[in-house]
């Protein structure tokens, strides 16, 4: 049975249109898929379909030699670096070291890896990274660097540009100045450069350096400084990138743990100024206890510090406080010594309370017999001192017996009269609440001078160090 020619042509036309529609739909789907891969919204784009990605990877690594840098024998490779600091922690002043967690990103171009399509990207991880050339970037002031292998990722763009990203933990060292400790300002810096390629082979440029959090337990960041320069070594000039964080130490912890206890101990050492002058035991115990406490504070403040050859601000404060406490102890000793000396002088010129006096019997003064008869008389006076007055009647009798120019200095009553006058003079320096004695003047002056000088020093100290 034969079909009419017109009907056959119409069926063929319908079939052709349907085929074209199917092909057009397939091409649109493929275009949409390619458009989705090319979208860059801050996330890693999806990979190509396995067959296509494998073909591209196999192609670009056919003649690729990872032992040679890009542009070998020609212009230097330009490395652009971006650093993101997660945190700066584990600051150990004794070793002058600090630790940082960093997201390290490096950009460079390797035309040998170009595969033409700029809308497609390839992501490499794991063993594939061993096939690529990497710049030998390192941190010059690093004591130890640990790269987290799971985070090592390379994104390859179609024009041969590469983005290498990795998270690393760096323990760095740097010179610290503790002259103003604990009001000190430190600089934590990181220097990145190539280990083996000089400026004729690799150059470095900054993109950005960012600290995600400026808060630390003991410090806070006040400034960020990024620089790029060159340094000369034995084999040539090298580019390097520096990022520095200027940090200020938080002083609140040290006010509570060092300054306040030290000030309190020094003030306590002044309490003997209001105690009894002759209470040397209690006064001395209080001063010695304050001294020992300040010695402990001095040792505590230097436990985590390196053994530097200069005096730190905290050391200066503690030493001056120690000196004030020691002078307060010396003041108590001086007051007690003054009392002892005054007591010794008075005892030298006074008569004991029970004294046996040999007095000549002057009752029969009219007798011409020059023989004298003596008898023992006991004079009882007040408990501490005796003050005997010189009897004028006896003196006149002695003058009658010995003559007008007779010597009566040997008589006990004459000596007692002289000692009585000296004792009265020394009583003017008596230590029993007399406001004219030397020990009282020392204590009263110390009550004013010690606080005035010490708090004046505190005001000058914190003003000088800018607290």
The main pleated sheet reads as:
7 strands, mixed
Nearest-integer average pLDDT: 77
Overall morphology: rod-shaped
Helical content stands at: 25-40%
What fraction strand?
25-35%
| Number of E-state strands | 13
The value of Rg in angstroms is: 50 Å
Structural class: alpha+beta
| Number of DSSP helical runs | 8
Protein name: Gamma-aminobutyric acid receptor subunit beta-1
GO cellular component, one term: plasma membrane
Transmembrane segments: 254-273, 316-339, 448-466
Membrane topology: Multi-pass membrane protein
Question: What features would you highlight for this structure?
Answer:
467 residues, alpha+beta, 7-stranded mixed beta sheet, 8 helices, 13 strands, disordered N terminus
Question: What's this, in brief?
Answer:
By secondary structure, this protein is an alpha+beta fold. It contains eight helices and 13 strands.
Task: Describe the model.
Residues 259-457 form the Neurotransmitter-gated ion-channel transmembrane domain. The protein has 467 residues and is α+β, with helices and mostly antiparallel strands. 37% of the residues lie in helices and 26% in strands. The protein has helices at 5-38, 50-60, 252-268, 280-301, 313-348, 392-402, 412-426, 438-464; strands at residues 77-92, 97-109, 121-124, 137-139, 142-147, 153-157, 161-173, 185-194, 202-211, 219-233, 236-249, 354-360, 374-380. Helix 4 (280-301) runs antiparallel to helix 5 (313-348). The model is unreliable at 1-9, 21-42, 47-51, 345-415 and 428-436 (pLDDT under 50).
């Amino acid at each position: 049975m034969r079909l009419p020619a017109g009907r056959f042509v119409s069926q063929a036309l319908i079939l052709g249109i349907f085929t074209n529609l199917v092909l057009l739909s397939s091409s649109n789907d493929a275009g949409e898929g390619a458009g989705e891969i090319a979208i860059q919204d801050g996330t890693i784009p999806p990979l190509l379909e396995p067959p296509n990605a494998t073909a591209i990877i196999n192609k670009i690594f056919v003649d690729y030699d990872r032992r040679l840098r890009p542009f070998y024998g020609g212009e230097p490779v330009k490395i652009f670096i971006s650093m993101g600091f997660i945190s700066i922690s584990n600051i150990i002043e004794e070793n002058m070291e600090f630790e940082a967690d960093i997201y390290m990103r490096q950009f460079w171009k390797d035309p040998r890896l170009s595969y033409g399509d700029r809308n497609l990207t390839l992501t490499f991880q794991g063993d594939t990274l061993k096939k690529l050339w990497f710049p030998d970037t390192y941190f010059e002031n690093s004591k130890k660097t640990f790269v987290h292998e799971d985070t090592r990722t390379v994104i390859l763009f179609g024009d041969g540009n590469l983005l290498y990203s990795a998270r690393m933990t760096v323990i760095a060292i740097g010179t610290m100045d503790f002259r103003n400790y604990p009001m000190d300002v430190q600089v934590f810096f990181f220097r990145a450069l190539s280990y083996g390629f000089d400026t004729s082979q690799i150059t470095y440029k900054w993109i950005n350096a960012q600290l995600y959090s400026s808060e630390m337990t003991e410090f806070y960041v006040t400034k960020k400084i990024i620089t790029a320069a060159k340094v000369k070594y034995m084999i040539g000039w090298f580019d390097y990138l520096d990022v520095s964080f200027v940090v200020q130490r938080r002083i609140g912890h040290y006010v509570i743990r060092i300054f306040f206890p030290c000030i309190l101990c020094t003030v306590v050492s002044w309490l003997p100024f209001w105690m009894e002058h002759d209470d040397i035991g209690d006064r001395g115990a209080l001063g010695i206890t304050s001294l020992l406490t300040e010695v402990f504070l001095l040792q505590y403040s230097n436990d985590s510090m390196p053994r530097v050859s200069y005096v730190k601000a905290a050391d200066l404060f503690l030493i001056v406080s120690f000196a004030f406490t020691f002078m307060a102890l010396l003041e108590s000793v001086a007051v007690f010594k003054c009392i002892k000396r005054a007591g010794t002088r008075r005892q030298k010129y006074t008569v004991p309370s029970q004294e046996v006096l040999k007095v000549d019997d002057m009752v029969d003064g009219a007798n011409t017999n020059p023989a004298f008869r003596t008898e023992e008389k006991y004079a009882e006076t007040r408990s501490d001192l005796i003050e005997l007055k010189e009897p004028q009647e006896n003196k006149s009798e002695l003058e009658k017996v010995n003559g007008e120019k007779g010597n009566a200095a040997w008589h006990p009553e004459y000596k007692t009269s002289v000692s009585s006058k000296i004792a009265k003079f020394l009583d003017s320096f008596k230590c029993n609440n007399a406001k004219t004695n030397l020990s009282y003047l020392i204590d009263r002056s110390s009550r004013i001078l010690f606080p005035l000088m010490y708090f004046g020093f505190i005001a000058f100290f914190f003003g000088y160090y800018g607290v």
